[in-house]
Amino acid sequence: MSIFVASLGFGLVTAAILALAALGFTLQAGMTNVVNLAYGDMMTAGAFAALVGQSALRLSVWPALFFGGVIVALLSFVTNRLGIRPFVQRGTKSFQMIIVTFAFGIILQYVIVMKWGEDFYAYHGLSLSLFRWGSFELSYEQLTIVIMSALLLAGFHVLVRYSRMGRALRAMADDKQLARACGVSVTRLTDIVWLISGALAGISGVALAINAGSFNEILGANFMLVVVAAAILGGAGEPNGAMVGAVVVGFAMEVSTVWIPGSYSQAVALILLIVAVLVRPQGLVAGRGKWVLAQ
């Protein structure tokens, strides 16, 4: 029983990290119609940006985490402006855009290898103290990740539902041409989407590195399949669905390790994805359009 309870704790942390990553991925895909396969490598870039924040700027772990988020938000913005938008303006087809983003991810991964090599790195200043509640235990870093994720997800909900920008985003998601005719700056909002999704990629990448204890250049790439599984399981383009899918996948992956080796945990996520697509192809959250969260 204690092993099962411990797996629930690990599942909570995995779900929290995955919810941030899947939200950013599905926000980007749902709003821009670009399936960004470089997203996982942007998560890795966030982890290494935080490392720079610690070594060059002497930041502690949590300021370094948000520093990583800011750097990847800017990287995401530049990637869209210089790398994605020219292809979109030329009418590049969806499959070709997927290949383009995959190429950007490979380039980013090689840039990281050129700078840091293929060694493993870790952050300094982690307490590693444990919070215990019966058989349930997490490190204080893991507990902070869960709380931070909940606050960021709640903040996103408030932004989309109650702010003027959130209303503009919903209008753009429903009909870009109509939104543009009503005075909404689609170009500016697209930039904002890439900034927000980039920040979520960077923050989730640092959180993933903290939870793993050490990381290298394939940290985000290895996690990307799980992010895609959570996004599709919840419902493509559904912010609520990404969160629900993250909870299901995160707990399923960690609880499964009670019975199977941990090295097979990602296979559980892919099995869930296949079953869900067969049984409920619209996803677990079948809403009225892309912005269920805001309705």
How would you explain this protein's 3D organization?
α1 crosses α9, α2 (39-57) packs parallel to α4 (94-116) and α3 runs antiparallel to α4 (94-116). The chain contains eleven helices and two strands. It is mainly α. The protein has a two-stranded antiparallel sheet. The chain has helices at 2-32, 39-57, 61-89, 94-116, 140-162, 164-174, 176-181, 186-212, 219-234, 239-256, 265-279, and strands spanning 130-133, 136-139. The longest helix is centred in the N-terminal third of the chain and has 31 residues, at 2-32. The model is unreliable at 288-295 (pLDDT under 50). A hairpin with a 2-residue loop joins β1 (130-133) and β2 (136-139). The radius of gyration is 19 Å and the shape is globular.
**In angstroms, what separates the terminal alpha carbons?**
40 Å
Helix residue percentage = over 70%
For the sheet with most strands, the description reads: 2 strands, antiparallel
Strand content: under 5%
Mean pLDDT: 85
Spans of at least 5 consecutive residues whose pLDDT stays below 50 are: 288-295
Beta-strand segment tally: 2
